[in-house]
Amino acid sequence: MATPVTIYGPPLSTAVSRVLATLIEKDVPFQLIPIDLSKGEQKKPEYLKIQPFGQVPAFKDESITLFESRAISRHLSKANIDQWVETEGQSFGPPSGDLVHDLLFSDAPVGEALIKKNVEKLAKVLDIYEQKLGQSRFLAGDEFSFADLSHLPNGDYLISSTDKGYLSTSRKNVNRWWNEISNRPSWKKVLGMRKNA
């Protein structure tokens, strides 16, 4: 959500307040369009196109229009997880996956220049993670989610089986996060299955 989302309704409304708190908690930029309920603005035809029941709140971003505060808040929470899953897939995954392949599984010799390039890419990503993880326990907030879990496979190989583990362990917040997510019972079970394979 690069551009600010739009929320319609008065902050005095408990439903609007729920959405505003979610937006603020998730650091989502937003624009608040006040709707004056005492003047019946929620029943005007333009607003009914957004919120067909003539209630508040309503929500719009680049791709979706929603109403009902809990649905909006769930959408925002899922979007926060999704953005970190995409970050893993687009920014963490490629250099970490290349390093795992090149350092552990490649049959052909790999040039130092390529390894250095991927170390530099991954270091930049982990610098951003370091900042984010200084603000929250996990990537998408204070609860473990798929956004964290998706880092386990490549991260484990990098940290436990290569000399590049320092990329994570040298960063205080990333190291704390890594120790927490990699010691989860589900991941310990997967590691046991790897050993027995």
UniProtKB/TrEMBL annotation:
GO terms for molecular function: glutathione binding; glutathione transferase activity. Its main location: cytoplasm. Keywords: Cytoplasm, Detoxification, Transferase. This is glutathione transferase. Residues 74-197 form the GST C-terminal domain. It catalyses: RX + glutathione = an S-substituted glutathione + a halide anion + H(+). The keyword 4Fe-4S does not apply. Belongs to the GST superfamily. Phi family. It comes from the Eukaryota. It is found in: Cytoplasm, Cytosol. It comes from Dovyalis caffra. It is an enzyme of class 2 (transferase). Its EC number is 2.5.1.18. GO terms for biological process: glutathione metabolic process; toxin catabolic process.
